[in-house]
User: Fold this.
Amino acid sequence: MEVSTLEELINTGEYSKIERAFKLAFSIPVNEFLDKKNLFLGLLSLKKLPLELFNLVKLEKLVLSENEITSIPEDIRFLKNLKILVLSFNQLKDLPKGFSGLKKLENIYLSNNLFQKIPKELFELDQLSVISLRNAHFIKEIPEDISKLTKLKHIEITSGQINKIPNSLFKLKNLESLILSDNNIRKISKAISTLNNLKVIDFSRNMLDSLPMEIKKLKNVEKLNLSQNQFSNEEKEKIKKILPNCKIQF
Assistant:
């Protein structure tokens, strides 16, 4: 998709929506936004993004959620100071190559889109701390390249078709929150015991009937959601005993 010019956006009425949003939020015109670090452009039914947006090179947080965006222009690469990007509730199927230029990005929110797989561009962003992909209905796997994201603390992929967790994920030693609810996971590897910093685990609404004994090594886990799986009463009691200080939901 080509980036819309200012003239095209004015003609279609799209740019006027952005202009109104700028004025409502900050009471200043668009051309005075160059020093802004935070920008909210959600809930505007936007289909296209203007070139002018990518001149805001000091942006650190950009919210584009709840629009009708189908693609992100390559020019996103110019927003090199972005740390937080919210693209949830759009119609995205992929990300552009230029996305891998966002080297300072820490938090990415991609929930409720149309991704068929986790975008490979994310694995080039070594500062990522948070990946959120709720309602990822078409995602079937977590790529092995997830291990590249060594600073990742929170990963959330829900309502997908994932049937196993790759061993590479268990190399993410800084991970504190692992949310994989509402998938098709049948087994948890004993390698999960290497994630010593885990505090929150959500495996609810999967197809699990047991957990490895090695999970007892996770001394920092505070919350463990295992509801709507296939655990027997005997297995539930075993899990309670090996994690006595953890709040467990069956």
Observations:
- Residues 14-26 form the longest helix (13 residues).
